[in-house]
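tool_call predict_complex ligand=flavin mononucleotide
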Amino acid sequence: MAEETEKRKADHIRICLEKKAQAKRATPGFEDVQFIHRALPELDRQKIALSTSFLGKKLAAPLIVGAMTGGTNEATKINAAIAQAAEALHLGMGLGSQRAAIEDKKLEGTYAVARKKAPTAFLIANLGGVQLAHGYGLREAKKAVEMIGADALAIHMNPLQEAIQPEGQTNFAFVLAKIVEIAGGLDVPVVVKETGCGISAEDAKALENAGVKAIDIGGVGGTSFAAVEYYRSTNGKMMDEDFWDWGIPTVTSLIETTQTVKIPVIASGGVRSGLDAAKALALNASLASVSQPVLEVAVKGTTETQELLSCLIDELRNVMFLVGAKNLEALAKVPVVVTGKTAEWLNIRGFDTTNYAQRSTQTFEY
Ligand SMILES: Cc1cc2nc3c(=O)[nH]c(=O)nc-3n(C[C@H](O)[C@H](O)[C@H](O)COP(=O)(O)O)c2cc1C
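tool_result ok
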């Protein structure tokens, strides 16, 4: 069982590096979100403040690296590179599912390396929601947190992946009750995340009521686990591509959830630039999270990882400059026009998209 998990983790890394395991026709929806350019930004770009606090921890910018890996030798190197970069830039990082190390203690180091290399960064432990329906509980949650000295625990929901994976586990009954138990009994906050299919308003509300302290929407438009499983299928029976685009696009999911819950929401799934991150933050995300593009640089090393993350932050700063936002509170108040399929979906679902456009442009402050 442990070996099988380890092999699956190695496959995921290889496929996400070598194949285009991204949504095909679906996009995250950032093209439907437009800022109003300010010819008069009336601020000094260098003085723009990007710092924020999230679940009680300070971050230098509202950016984290999403949960990816652990459990293999290669994962140790990847986690070390990401952790070092996150520490240097004062950002956050999610670790991949820690089930492998819960099944086999020898693998703990492949995750714990992150805390070693990032003694102060915001680290998020990770367990699969489906494991909660198969016997995992508070004990395993505590183990995962202790293993990396985590500041929070993410419980990932991946029903699509489990459904199409040949060895997938598909009993998701009573997962919510287990989330209530863990959220109530753990010393650190619990985050629930999707892994590329998005979170609806209804599920977000249920999670907030369950005591979850933040939601990571993980919308469709970036890495597709249906694509990853397609490339993993070796049993001769090629899977079709119908599910590569399954789910709620990132921007749609972000608007549904932020208009429904009061807890912080992380935007992820196809965030590929500082401009995407800025759009998510303007739509009231508390953080943006990037995964696959970071994997590509993390296999090269810490410097490359740090360069990519710095680039994203620099671009975010540029957008804030061009919309006249001196800090993240101001960015969340600038006018934003939401159009296209995203607006259509949201309007059918009863969410208001004109409210973002009707925000008044920032008044000048001297
Ligand atoms: C190689 C790889 C492994 C992943 N493993 C996990 C995991 O173990 N746990 C988890 O919660 N999400 C996992 N994810 C999902 C990411 O956290 C994220 O939700 C998803 O990749 C969408 O972000 P992206 O489009 O920026 O890649 C993984 C993603 C990748 C690329």
